[in-house]
Each structure stands twice: as C-alpha cells, then as structure tokens.
TrEMBL record:
Residue ranges of domain Response regulatory in the record: 3-121
Name assigned to this protein: DNA-binding response regulator
GO BP annotations, alphabetical order: phosphorelay signal transduction system; regulation of DNA-templated transcription
Residues the record lists as 4-aspartylphosphate modifications: D54
Molecular-function GO terms, alphabetical: DNA binding
SMART domains in the record: HTH_LUXR, REC
Keyword Aminoacyl-tRNA synthetase: no
Keywords: DNA-binding, Phosphoprotein, Transcription, Transcription regulation
Species this chain originates from: Actinoplanes siamensis
UniProt domain HTH luxR-type: residue ranges: 144-209
A Pfam family that the UniProt record links to this protein: Response_reg
Amino acid sequence: MTGVLIADDDELVRTGLRAILGAQPGLTVTGEAGDGSEVVPAAVRRRPDVVLMDVRMPRLDGIQATRLLLARFPQDPPKVLVLTTFANDEYVFAALQAGASGFLLKRARPEQIVEAVRVVARGDSLLFPAAIKSLAAAYARPARGLGTAGLTAREAEVLALMADGMSNAEIAERLVLGVETIKTHVGNVLGKLGVRDRTQAVVAAYKSGFISP
C-alpha cells in the first residue's frame, strides 16, 4: 500500500485529491497538511511514501517545505510530487532544484494524477523534458563548467539522453548497449552529481550549463 500525504492550502483541492486517490487500489491518503509548515510534522507522524506538494502556500511554500522534508528524512525520504496551476511557474523549477521528483498540473485528469503518484512511488522520476527545458530556459542561472563532476564521455551521453526523457531501454537501443549497462551508467551519473533521481540529474545538467536550454 502506497501512503500519500496531501499538502495544499485549498481544502477543496485536498478533498478532491483524497477522493481520487482513496478510490484507487494500492493507494491510501495517510494525512493532509494545509500549509508547508505542517508537512514535516505530518510526515513524521504518518510516514507517507509520496507527498503531493502545492508550491504556493501562505506561511511556508512548497519549496522550503520540500527542503525541510528531505533534510528531516536524509536516508529514505518521501517522494515529492509538486502540484502547480501553471507549468511555467518559477516556483516549480525551484522545487525541482530543492529535491522534488516531478511536477503535475492541478488540472490534470484523475488518471494522470494516479499514474504520477504510482510512478514516483516506485522510485522513477516524472520527467516532462519539454517543460523542464522551458523552465530551465526561463529560470536556471547556469554556472559554466560546474556540475558535470567528472562524467566520462559515455556517462555524459547518457545524461543528455536522460534529459530528452528517454528510458533506460530507449537509451540502450540508441547506444546499442545492454539495459544493465545503461543502468550502471545512470547510477554512476547520479552518484557523481550527488543527486537521488533522474529529475535531479537533469535539473543539475541544466543548472550547471552542461545542457543548454
């Protein structure tokens, strides 16, 4: 059973999400937070697998709440899925930089919300390459020459394909390599960049200037 914590200052939004997720097999809403300041205490009590995090909340926004949450659970943190009204919101890119595994529009269809929760719960990243590229172009402040962390030529190639939204199987086919070999390269990329998942690796690639939006 995947536990979900819903963090949003709009009670109607929380009610709608609770109804959508609670009706799905294998998903359960373990708690709610009406502000970012309530997220960490609620997560400590409920230990959710996924936090649906609104980026704009009155007292503490989703960016700071994400940072505090990941700092509170350094070993096995909940996955953070950011909820936003607008895909080009600068708060979204900041939340991704803070450690969120992906983002989702509040107007997404119920089945898209459910699938997004399942994706991040199983440890995958919710990547929207075109949207992240657009966000990076608008809000990233590249520091040239930083962040590639000694990647080999092959690892750099894999990172670029990750930024295009390719899965391990698709990268393996493109590079004519085995999937297990690609998994090893992806693991090396994450380790060298000091990030937890593919979304964070792609954000780091844009932020460092390794990939230009």
